[in-house]
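Cont'd.
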Amino acid sequence: MKKTAERFGLAIAGTLVVALSCYGLARAYLYYEAARAEHMMRELGDVKIGDPESQVLAILQRYGNYRKAPEDLAKFDKADYEYEAEIGPSGIYYFIDRGSTGMFCRMTRAVLSSLNPRLRRAIGLRRWSVDGRVGIKENSVTIVRGMVLVEGSREWLAGDWTLAKTIPRYAIDRFVTSPGVSWPHDVNHYLVGWSRLIAMENQNGGGEGASSWITPSATEDEKRSALEFRWNCLTSRSGCRTVCDLFPAAVEYASTGTWKERREACTAPRSYY
Amino acid sequence: MRQVEYQLFSLQNGTLTPLYGTPQIQGVKIEEWEANPSNPNVHICSWQNQDTKCESPNSVDPPGQYTDDMGAGVSSPYTVQQQFLVDRQGLQVFWPNPAPTWYGAWGTPSSTPPGFQPNQTASTTNGWATISQINVNVKAATACPSGCDTTPAQAGPPSQ
C-alpha cells in the first residue's frame, strides 16, 4: 500500500516536472522566434525602394520560411512578382501555405491550437505571426511591407507598415480627407490608418489594427515612427491591451480626429474573447 | 477586400442631398445589423452583443458615414443579410442602377430574427464582395447630383 502511494506521488511529481519543462521550453522557443521576427522586420525596414532583388532575397533566405506571393497581391501592388516571408510559430493563419511551412512550426501551431484559449492566454502562450512582403519590378524593390498580428489581452491586435513610391489614394481618402481629421504630416509622405480585423473565424475572436504608409521622402522621424513595434507584446504573459500598445504610430492616428470614438481608440479596446 | 462607404443623405423631391460633413450630423448614430450568414463561423455585425456591434461614429468613421469592410480573404465565401439604421430607425439604402439614377430599398419586413428587416444581401468570395438589394423601390428613380460614389452594388474588383 505504501509502495503504491509512493509510486503515485512519483508519477504526479514526474508529470508536473514534464509539464513545467514543456511550458518552459515553449516560452523559450516563442522568445527565440520573437527575437528572430524582430530582426527580420528591422532588416526589411532598412530595405529601400530600388534596392536589388538579390539583396532582399538574401535577407528572406536568412529567415527560412519564404516563397513567391500569390499573383493577385503583386498585381494589386503593380509589381512583377512578390516574395513573402513569415515567422509564426504560434500563428493562426498560414500566410505562407501549409505545405511550405516547416514541420516543427506546424507542430507547435497544432499543439497551441489544441490548448484551451483561456488557459493558453492565462499562462502567457500567446499566438502571433510576423510577415514581410517585398514587391519586385524590373529586378529591383518597388514596395516593402511588414505586419505583426498578435493575440492581445482582450482582442487580436495588428500593426503593419508599407514603404512605397506613393501612398495609395484610397488610404488618403479614407483616413485623411474625412470631416473632422487634421493630419499634421504631409500625407504624400506619411500616413497612419486604422481598421477592424475582419473575416476572422468566431473561434479566434476579432480585433483591430493600425497601418502606416511611408514613401522614400518621409522624414527620419516619420520612418522611425512608421516602423516601430513594441515587441514585448509577443512574449508578455498578460498581453498588450490595445493596438497602440503594439504599434505606437497609432497614437497619433487617434489624436488627430475630432470625434470621441477616434480619440478613444487607444484607451477603449473591444473585448472579443 | 471591398470597402463600401455608406454616407447619410436626405431625400427631398426625388433628390439625395449630403448630410454627412454638415454640422447637423453631430450625435447621429448609424448602425449596421447583420444576420443569417451562410457560414456560421465568420464574424458578423451582430447587434445583440455589445462587442460585435458595428456602428458609426467609430475609430475610423466620423458621424454621418459608415465603412463596411467585407471579405478579407482569410475565410471561405459566405453571404449575409444587412440592415442599416440611423438613430434606431430603419432607412432606405440607395445604390446606382445605373448612375445617374439611384434606387432605394427598405428591405423586407418578414425576416428572422424578429425585428430584422434587411435592406440587402452581401456575398463575399475571393476577397471581394457584391451587394444585392432586397425589394428595390423601382418606381422611385432618384437623383444624386453631388457627393455620391457611382460604383454599382454588383461591381467587381478594380483592375489595376
